[in-house]
Amino acid sequence: MPPTAESAHARRVLNVAQGHQPSGVAATDPNIASSWRRCLDTHALDPGARMAPRVLASSQLRERRSALECLRSVSMPVLERLQRQLMNPRQAVLLTAPDGVIVESRLHDGSRDDFHRAGLWPGADWSESCEGTNGIGTCVVERAPVIICQQEHFRALHTPLTCTASPVFAPQGELLAVIDVSSTSTDVTRQSQFHTLALVNLSAKLVESEYFFQHYRNEWLLQLQEQADHLGGFAQALLAFDDSGRVFAANQSALNRLGVTRDAIVGTRVDRWFAQTLDALLAQAHPSPSACWPIRTHTGELLLAMLRAPARAVRRVTRLPDAVPTTPPEPFADPALAREFSRACRVFAHDVPVLIRGETGSGKEVFARAVHAASARASGPFVALNCAAIPESLIESELFGYVGGSFTGARKEGMHGKLWQANGGTLFLDEIGDMPFAMQTRLLRVLEDRMVMPLGGGEPVPLDIRVLSATHRDLSERIAQRQFREDLFYRLSGLEITVPPLREREDKLDLIRRLLAQTRTGTPGQGGAVSVTEAAQDRLCTYAWPGNVRQMRSVIRTLVALSENGVITFDDLPNELRDAQVVALMGSSGSSAERPEEAPLDAAERQALRAALDACQGQVSAAARRLGVSRNTLYRKLKRFGLLRG
What we know:
Layout: H1 3-17, H2 30-42, H3 58-67, H4 69-86, E1 91-96, E2 102-106, H5 112-117, H6 128-131, H7 135-142, E3 146-149, E4 162-169, E5 175-183, H8 194-215, E6 220-225, E7 237-241, E8 247-250, H9 252-258, H10 262-265, H11 278-282, E9 293-296, E10 302-308, H12 311-314, H13 335-348, E11 354-357, H14 364-373, E12 382-386, H15 392-400, E13 401-402, E14 415-416, H16 418-421, E15 426-430, H17 437-449, E16 451-452, E17 461-462, E18 466-471, H18 475-480, H19 486-492, E19 495-498, H20 508-521, E20 531-532, H21 534-542, H22 548-562, E21 567-568, H23 575-578, H24 600-615, H25 620-627, H26 631-640
Parallel strand pairs: 11-18, 11-19, 12-15, 15-18, 20-21
Antiparallel strand pairs: 1-2, 1-5, 3-4, 4-5, 6-7, 6-10, 7-8, 9-10, 13-14, 16-17
């Protein structure tokens, strides 16, 4: 803002402080004028000051983040989803502590510098007492959603910003955090931020619900919702109570639904507020609830209810607690894949849908089964539906089921669909990008309502499922071509992870050994171990595997079936493996002239690797011994220098 504009803004603020009637931007919302007066009278701030925001030291920020670990863990998937929904590189999504200090941010790489110059980064204190009227600080004071648009800011320095913020409340009603979306765009108005405000409010409610679940996971949790809506939505009413029925907490939706205050309900018996005894209420619980039931409140309102048993009780009846594994399972020894697995497990435990990307044959279903097996739903069903393998005319009945006689060729007794079969467990939608467009609309409705109605009629069935989906397609391109619904994409992609292609994995040797052991064990009439010569092993590890794990499994099965003496040699390999050029030899493509940016040390290392490989006739194991490094280390170096190819 030019100096003259800054001065004019400062004069407007001072006029309001002197008791003049506010005009222009300050008159649109009386809270703005009130905030300006607080900044002048209480905090003694100067609207023309050009000081940067106060920032916590790194050690203080670490302590602040550590104290808010539970909040951060449930918030991050919500913030990432909000950023994707906004799809605006000039908007930053921020999470703050209850005092206005930013603890997390989600920024687009291209706009990171702009927001840093504006002072919007983790550790910055945006309380109203420090930075004057702004989205974060004023939301903290008002304890209500706010929009602070450009010149509504107190400090002239912040007038290029537009901030939209919503409070997040803890189960007992105290302020827990603020979610803020700040924009550096100049062509915005207060009215244009109403849609952003709706998304921010929704995100805040989602975080509140997830935090409630985590905070009271060792108590009974009662969820209430109108029958027309789905359980699990952002407006769900939540109550937590102990084994004796004593209410510990209720969120604001529950207080509104029951028409009581927090002080009136906390400490009372839960059955006081419903036309149902405590024993009857507890009898409806299940470790992995798969059904809802109607319940009438003390005022006579009929709601839909679901009761979650305490985690301490769940552990007595399920194979695994609802916790993230500390170490990846054996199939995921590759570091990149192990990291993706850990991320997927963490969000899946909070009912966040996971979209698995990866090339055909890379093991997306194996990954999905591992996530299911590591969750609290491991004892429930894992139901897979390959959307590309079922004819379009049959996919609807396969997914939703049907009643008897609903169409020609239907079974007399009808059939339960995949959605019903997955109740209480996990539904895996493989190749979701190939689902017919018409089916996507109905699937979206089912996932939103958590109710499924079979073809041909019948009663709607409540669903308790978690969803994993996978695709090898570019869904953004499918959306642009109007072959995939954008709203379904956002519903399925709470977290997107990538299963790397086999050629990029570092655990190929371990995978080969496991496949050999599994194949040998499963081959009738064959027992004992199968050994592989070094030359064959090197080629199996360095081959590009365009068909990924599926191709490797097929090749190994064939090699085991054909082996007569229990040894697989280089000559036993298929022609396509034997003839593949694995090491890119020196030539025009490897000339140093085409890599002018390569450092001298890198060039020397590249030359040493080539010399070792040439001396060992391309045998990686021998070259590793010659260089005095492990085979895995040599593979990584060859990959780094582009010396491996199929």
